[in-house]
Amino acid sequence: MSADGLATGGELSLEQALSATVQRTGALAAGVYLLSPDQPMLCLAAVCGMPVRTVAPWWRVAVSAAGPLSESVREDHLVWVGRQEDMARLYPNAAAGLPYQFALAFAPLHGARRWGALALVWPKSHPPSLTRRERGAVLASASGVTRILDEATGLWDIPEEPRAVPLLHPGADPAQTGLAADDLLRRLPLGALGMDLQGRVTYVNEAAARLLGRSADSLMGTLPWQTVPWLDSPVHEDRYRTAVLSREPVAYTAAGPPGRRYDIRLYPDDSGISAFISPSLGEESSDASPPHPATTTPENAGETVGTGRIHQLMHLSAALSQTVTVSDVIGTVADLILPAFGAQGLVVSAADAGRLRVIGHRGYDPRAVARLDGLPIDTEVSPVGRVLNSGTPAFYADPDELTRAHPRAPLHSGKQAWAFLPLVVSQRRVGCCVLSYDHPHLFDAGDRAVLVSLAGLIAQAMDRALLYDAKHDLAHGLQQALLPVTLPRVPRLTVAARYLPAAHGIDVGGDFYDLIRLGDTAAAAVIGDVQGHNINAAALMGQVRTAVHATAGSRPGDVLARTNRVLIDLETDLFVSCLYLHIDLVERRVQLASAGHLPPLLRGPASTGRTAPLAVDPGPLLGIGPCTEADYPVTAAALPAGSLLTLYTDGLVESPGTDITDSLADLAHQLDRVGGRPLDLIADTLLRHAAPRHGHADDIALFLLRSR
After folding, report:
1. pLDDT of res. 581
2. Taking the complete model, does pTM exceed 0.85, yes or no?
C-alpha cells in the first residue's frame, strides 16, 4: 500500500483508467470516491482533469447527505444531473455550493464490496441527457475502476489529500514547438501565463513578470494567488475555477496595486489554462514604469476565504435553514460539517439553567460524553466555559496547546485537536459546538473564518430548534394528557387504540377517542375530531369528552344532542365531528349516532363476512348552529361474535386529490387482508399503510373494537 493511499500494484492502472475514462466519455474530469472504513463517509481518493484544490469543499461527503453522489451509493445506481436547473430542483442544498454550469454523473463502484463511486464532469455545452452510448461508456468505466479496486491486495487507504492524476492524451511533443512558442510570447507586449490544471504556473513571459511584480523564477511552479499579494482575492480563484469547470474562456477586470486595474483573459483546455494580462483601457501601460513590486505580505494575506469555502458555506447554510428539530440540526452538523472540515468528533451542548447539557454527539465514547454533561457554564477550567463567557471561539492544534491554555482541563476523549465554537444569538448564550480530530490539526485562517461564520448559523438553527422542540413537547404532552391513559377492560370485548400526531407543526390537535364501561354487558365507544390545531382545540376536546361521559348510557342520539347543547352554551367558534356507539354485548348489537363524522367500518366474522362501511345517517356537527334541539338519528346493526369495528378520524383516509370513497374502499381492503390478526398488529399495519399516501398532514386517531 503506498503512502498516498493508492495500492502500489494498481497505481498505474488507476491513473490509466481515470485518464481513459475522461477521453472515452468526453468528460472534463473524473474522480474516484471511496467509502471510509470506519465512518459513513465518501472520501475523494483521486481526481483527473481538474485541480485538486478546486474541489476541496467536496473532498469528504456524508453518505446520508442529500446530493447526487450520496444517492448513487445509497441507491446503487447511476445518477445524472444534466443542468444546473436540475441540480437546484432535485438537490437544492448541493446546488447552493455548486453555482457552476456543468453536467454531472455518479456511478457506484460495487464489486467484491461497495467501494464508493466514480464521479464525472462535463461542460455546460453537453446536452441535458446522456445518450445510450455515453451511459454505456460511463458504466463500463465504473466497472473497470471497480475491477482495479477488487484486484488490489488488502483495503485501499483513504489519503489525507486526493491524488492528482495527470490527464494522459496523445499530442505533439512540446519540446518540438516550445522554442518557437517561447520566442513568440516573449515579443508580445501583454503578459502571458501558462498554468496546469492544478493552477501552477508552467510558463511566464517577461511582460507578465513585470505586471505581476515578481520575477519569472519566483512565479514558476506556484499558484499565482498565493505568490502575488494583489491576486490573493476570491475573485481570481473563482474565475479560474469557472474556466476550469466550464472549459470556456473567461474575461474580467480586476483591481491590482493601488491605482491600477488589469484586464485578465483565461483560455482553458484539457491540459491547462493560458492567461493573458494587460493594463485596463485608460490605465498607464508603459513598460518603463511597471507596478512597484510588493516586498512584504499584507497583514490580511492568507486570511481571505477562498471561493470554494464561500460556496461550501452557502451549501451548509442552506442545509441548516431547512432543519426543524434539535435532532435535525445535530444530524446536519454531523453529516455535512464534520466531513467538510475533516473532523471526526462532534459534541453539541445547550445552555440550561446555568449548565451545559449535551444534546448530541458523534464520534465519541458515550462514557466520555457523560463526563462533559452538566458542566457549569461559568467555569473557567474547561475551554467550553471560557469560549461561552468570552463569546470568542478557540482552536487548539494539539493536546499540548490545549494543556497550556487550560492546565486543569481534563482530557478524557483521546482526541488530538479541537475547535470550540460558542453558539451565541443576540448576546444570548445558546450553547457550544465542539469539533474534534483524531490527529493534530492546524487550523488555517480560512478554516477559522468559515468556522466562525458557521457557528453563527448553527446557533440560529439551534435556537429555533430548541424553541420548536419545547413547544412541540408541551403541545403533544397536553394532548396525551387529555387522551385516556388506559382503556377499561370490558368482558367479551377486545380493543386497541392509536393516536398519531401530525408529522409537521407544533400545534396540538383535537382528535380523541374513549371507551366507557357500562356494566359487564355493555360499553360506549366514542371518537371525534375538534376543528383546528391549537390549545383551544385541545381544551374543547377535553370538554367534549367530559360531556359525553356525563350522559353515556343514554340513547346515542340523546348523548350527542346534550353534548351539542353544552358546546353551544360554551359559545365556542369551533366545531366537532363525533361518532358515539352503544354496544350491547349480550344482544350482540350496536346502536350509533353520528355528528358529521366518517362512518365506521364493520368486518364480519372471518369465515362469513367482509369489510364495509356502516350506513349511518349523520346529524349536524356539534356546536355548528344556534339550534339547541339538533336531531341525531340512531342506526342499529348486528355485531356477531368475531366482528371487528374500526373507528377513525379523517387523517387516516383523507389526502389531497383522492376521492374519499376510494380511500374508504382502500381501508376496507386492508382490513379484509389483515382483519384476522391481533388488534395491535392491525392498528400498526393500517398506520404504516396510510403514512406514505397522507404524510401525516393531519392527526390520526384509530380505535379498533372486536366482539369476542
Report:
1. 96
2. no
